[in-house]
């Protein structure tokens, strides 16, 4: 994959996808070169089987300008982006697609169709967003949540955000992922509600309300990422220095964290929306090719886990 130099983490994800069947994917309104080429490249790598949903003439024009061969790809005609989103969601509801992928329409148009009370893809879970990040200075794939959907999540929302992320990381082959629940400090205080939420989430895990992971928090970012920093402060933690998931206290903190890692630490970040009936691949024109392909690879592994397909275990890179 081209783009920023990789550290092997995304490539390890791709390696685990090689023996798996590509997943039928509804691609909503791929009417710009980056959106269409991302879907075509993911198909070439055997990750997805795209169903292109949008105005046929426009898609053909974009493909011709970008020298992309669309022979063999199904195209569902939709005159504009709003209908593209609705038809792509309908393909999922009809069982013709197991993944949904954002094309060149606005995210709120796609998500509007996803969360529609009639004809949408809601479940009992809160919908949330994850960044699956390849940070060159970190030893494994790191998931940051939620940095794009839930602005100021309440405790119950955070529990669902965690459940979504834990399910995803487990589907990637990581048994008992480690979760750092972030705050500004590592002590519990009523002056900082995020620390109260962190403590409550850990107790929920103790009582079986959140399962499948090892939780610790509140942890400041340095204590979460650095075992040495935690030791200096006298923190004994299975999570410190080795988290798979970072739960941000709110959207602003999560968004700032993910963008800092991207622009200061040269990280790539793949984006997915979870908690709907199927994983939703969110890409943007600013994404590198590596990040777009990694988004598809992560979603493919999640879809196979939902099918019950045996997925190879994650390996350290």
Q: Would you write up a description of this structure?
A:
The protein has 317 residues and is an alpha/beta fold. It has 2 domains: 1-122, 3-Layer(aba) Sandwich (Rossmann fold), CATH 3.40.50; 123-275, Isopropylmalate Dehydrogenase (3-Layer(aba) Sandwich). 41% of the residues lie in helices and 18% in strands. The protein contains 11 helices and 11 strands. It has helices spanning 9-17, 33-44, 56-66, 81-93, 107-115, 155-171, 193-206, 221-225, 227-232, 251-264, 289-307; strands spanning 23-28, 48-54, 74-77, 99-102, 128-134, 142-145, 178-182, 214-219, 245-247, 268-274, 280-282. It has an 11-stranded mixed sheet with strand order 3-2-1-4-11-10-5-6-9-7-8, with helices on both faces. Strand 7 (178-182), helix 7 and strand 8 (214-219) form a beta-alpha-beta unit. Helix 1 crosses helix 11, helix 2 crosses helix 11 (289-307) and helix 4 crosses helix 5 (107-115). The longest helix has 19 residues, at 289-307. The model has no long low-confidence stretch (mean pLDDT 92).
What keywords describe this structure?
Rossmann fold, 317 residues, alpha/beta, 11 helices, globular, 11-stranded mixed β-sheet, Isopropylmalate Dehydrogenase
Break the fold down into its secondary structure elements and pairings.
Elements lengths: L8 H9 L5 E6 L4 H12 L3 E7 L1 H11 L7 E4 L3 H13 L5 E4 L4 H9 L12 E7 L7 E4 L9 H17 L6 E5 L10 H14 L7 E6 L1 H5 L1 H6 L12 E3 L3 H14 L3 E7 L5 E3 L6 H19 L10
Parallel strand pairs: 1-2, 1-4, 2-3, 4-11, 6-9, 7-8, 7-9
Antiparallel strand pairs: 5-6, 5-10, 10-11
């Amino acid at each position: 994959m081209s783009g920023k130099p990789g550290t092997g983490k995304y490539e390890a994800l791709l390696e685990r996808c090689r023996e798996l069947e590509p997943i039928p994917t509804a691609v909503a309104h791929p009417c710009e070169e980056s959106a269409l080429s991302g879907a075509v490249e993911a198909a070439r790598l055997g990750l997805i089987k795209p169903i292109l949903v949008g105005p046929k003439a426009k898609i053909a024009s974009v493909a011709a300008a970008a020298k992309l061969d669309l022979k063999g790809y199904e195209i569902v005609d939709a005159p504009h982006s709003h209908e593209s989103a609705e038809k792509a969601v309908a393909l999922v509801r009809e069982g013709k697609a197991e993944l949904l992928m954002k094309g060149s329409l606005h995210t709120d148009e796609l998500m509007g169709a996803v969360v529609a009370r009639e004809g949408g893809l809601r479940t009992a879970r809160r919908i949330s967003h994850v960044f699956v990040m390849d940070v060159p200075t970190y030893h494994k794939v790191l998931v940051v949540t939620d940095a794009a959907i839930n602005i100021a999540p309440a405790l119950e929302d955070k529990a669902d955000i965690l459940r979504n992320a834990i399910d995803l990381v487990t589907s990637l082959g990581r048994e008992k992922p480690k979760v750092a629940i972030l705050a500004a400090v590592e002590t519990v205080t009523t002056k900082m509600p995020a620390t109260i939420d962190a403590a409550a989430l850990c107790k929920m895990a103790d009582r079986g309300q959140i399962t499948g992971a090892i939780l610790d928090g509140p942890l400041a970012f340095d204590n979460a990422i650095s075992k040495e920093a935690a030791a200096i402060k006298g923190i004994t933690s299975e999570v410190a220095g080795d988290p798979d998931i970072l739960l941000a206290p709110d959207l602003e903190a999560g968004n700032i964290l993910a963008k800092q890692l991207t622009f200061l630490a040269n990280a790539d970040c793949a984006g997915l929306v979870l908690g709907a009936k199927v994983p939703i691949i969110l890409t943007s024109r600013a994404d590198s090719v590596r990040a777009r392909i990694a988004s598809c690879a992560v979603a493919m592994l999640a879809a196979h886990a939902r099918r019950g397909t045996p997925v190879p275990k994650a390996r350290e890179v």
